[in-house]
């Protein structure tokens, strides 16, 4: 999967101008008027597009969450890998402009209210994954859904944090980490062999594989 979540270039320009001001003179010391002037828009346009100073910091997240929601609303053959691909989609969007991602990271770290909002924002990604898994596999144990969603989100954030702190980290590193998550849950696409068309199927699954996933795979084979 190579797509990125869509983020509007015009909004990105305003976000960049705001983050540069926050970094240079502090979040509390920067006014909406200063941001609007630096971005070349009116004060009313800023409020109409973003709402407030804290909203502009997380504007990219809002667009990424919307893009991720649309992606998860599409049909996917494998719900587990769809979640991992969604995580990669978000990572690639930040990795496409690491300078701005690092600037946001620095600003958020310095402002307690922004750090609190970031925690809530991270949970929103996790909740999207959780709800998607439950919707895709109604028989899935809720603990498996929330556990997988939380682990994917935590691994994503760990790898992303390395990028934000200046390390040379690529989407391939996240892909490898997510493959490990899939194997830990016993749901990696390679976890079961592909029998021939007319073969008698003798299925062996990892003990860690959720029963709902076993049922899904058996149903796919029988269909």
UniProtKB/TrEMBL annotation:
Gene3D superfamilies: Tetracycline Repressor, domain 2. Keywords: DNA-binding. InterPro entries: Homeodomain-like_sf, HTH-type_TetR-like_transc_reg, HTH_TetR. It comes from the Bacteria. One of its GO terms (molecular function) is DNA-binding transcription factor activity. It holds the Pfam family TetR_N. Residues 31-50 bind DNA. Residues 8-68 form the HTH tetR-type domain. This is HTH-type transcriptional regulator EthR. The gene is ethR.
């Amino acid at each position: 999967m190579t797509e990125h979540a869509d983020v509007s270039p015009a909004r990105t320009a305003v976000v960049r101008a705001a983050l540069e001001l926050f970094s240079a003179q502090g979040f509390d010391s920067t006014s909406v008027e200063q941001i609007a002037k630096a971005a070349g828009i009116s004060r009313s346009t800023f409020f109409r597009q973003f709402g407030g100073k804290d909203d502009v910091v997380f504007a990219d997240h809002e667009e990424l969450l919307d893009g991720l929601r649309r992606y998860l609303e599409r049909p996917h053959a494998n719900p587990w890998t769809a979640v991992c691909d969604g995580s990669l989609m978000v990572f690639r969007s930040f990795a496409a402009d690491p300078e701005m991602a690092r600037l946001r990271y620095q600003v958020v770290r310095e402002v307690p209210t922004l750090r609190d909002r970031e925690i809530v924002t991270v949970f929103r990604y996790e909740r999207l994954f959780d709800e998607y898994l439950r919707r895709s596999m109604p028989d899935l144990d809720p603990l498996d859904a929330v556990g997988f969603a939380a682990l994917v989100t935590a691994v994503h954030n760990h790898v992303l944090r390395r990028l934000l702190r200046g390390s040379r980290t690529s989407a391939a590193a996240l892909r490898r980490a997510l493959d490990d998550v899939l194997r830990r849950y016993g749901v990696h696409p390679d976890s079961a062999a592909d029998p021939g068309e007319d073969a008698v199927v003798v299925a062996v699954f990892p003990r860690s594989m959720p029963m709902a996933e076993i049922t899904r795979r058996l149903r796919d084979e029988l269909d």
